[in-house]
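User: We ran a pulldown and think these components assemble together. Before we commit to crystallization trials, I'd like a predicted model of the whole complex to look at. Sequences follow.
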Amino acid sequence: MATKPIKVTLNGTEHSLEVEPRLLLVHLIRENLSMTGTHIGCDTSNCGACTILLNGKSVKSCTVLAVQANGKEVTTIEGMATAEGLHPLQEGFREMHGLQCGFCTPGMIMRATELLKQNTNPTEDEIRWGISGNLCRCTGYNNIVKAIQYAASKLNGTEMPAELKEEVSAEE
Amino acid sequence: MIPETFEYDSPSTLEEAIQLLQKHGDEAKILSGGHSLIPMMKLRLATPERLIDINGIPNLNYIKEEKDFLKIGALTREADIEHSDLLKKKYPIFSDVTKLIADPQVRNLSTIGGNLAHGDAANDHPAVMLALNASIIAHGPEGTRTIAIDDFFHGFYMTALNHAEILTEIRIPIPGKGTGGAYHKLERKVGDYATAGVAVQMTLDGKGVCRYIGIGLTNVNMTPLRASRSEKALLGEKVTPGLIQEAALYASEDCNPSEDLRGSEEYKRHIVKVLTNRMLHKAAERAMNGGA
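Assistant: Here's a predicted model for the assembly, 464 residues in total across the polymer chains.
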């Protein structure tokens, strides 16, 4: 079976590879390029654990072929933190207890990244609709919503909702 | 889950794609958004020997009004439809439907052309297109042809498209003043196929008389279904709650739902009745408020 040459930029680094057309993007990321932060959950485009950014758009990498990413930029959870520290979304998930087992977290954060780019100050309802393609079986979502609210406030420079501030100060 | 092996082409023009489809015949499938095809390939329900990826073909992603038609390019993503200012303002039925299609990530890739060309009565756009009286534009080896939406759906996963034809555009007549549209489906959870869904487009004159009516039903028949008897009951008549109730009853009687995990046949007929009633009211309300 013929392989195809592809060029993919993963978290800022360009890679040239020969891949089988049937290779899924999530397997390219995890196995060929050894970045295992992106998880495989349901493998049927329901759960959102494998969500990554493809040219800035959140997609489910279990349902995209690696050849479809040819010439494109892929961002995964490993691409979020910088030398200065965690991304505000990562910080929000830590501060607001937005994770328990953590399996859904990378997908949640990648999805929320695009959500906050499109809507810098989302309502709770908009956040819940925004993450409707991501399943979490631990938290009951409330703390995930708070984590995204935390990041939104930090990114857009607005006052954090009082409820969130209380929670942060109670920790300290 | 990994698909069976296949060959992959990514043509950069429509002509090249059509040539490839002609050359490889039934072995080849078109890859658009891929969110129906790739899951089927992973489950080995579909095992095409070759994929023709049309995503590299330019100028197939647009939403525009031109002369008497709203034109939507086949590669327009559901997310683009969801966020289009033109559609939000003038065609709220598209906001109704897109936010109920799968989830945000899927909508970033899935296309309206693929949703229709897949020929699945459980998809949501087919019923909307029946209500809007759309036409399908297809490019093939013999050139371009226009297919009326009522002639498009032939059976389970079967459409009027010939093998080497590619759906390139959806064309919707720009409605007159006093038109309103609405869509809703009952789903068990986000991303589910419809238990049942109903699309309505209605034009009312100044006296509240119905001058155009289109009603399409999702997932209650082998093919997307037009509620013809309901339409006949409304057309040319003054729209009243009583008449809407009658039309909703006809839709529930004329559809052909089958029992599955989403409910019994009786339950689904009931849902069709309730949703038809609600969508007729909502469309009439939008029509009277001057929306499209």
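The mean pLDDT of chain B is 97. That may be worth checking against your pulldown data before setting up trials.

User: Thanks, that helps.
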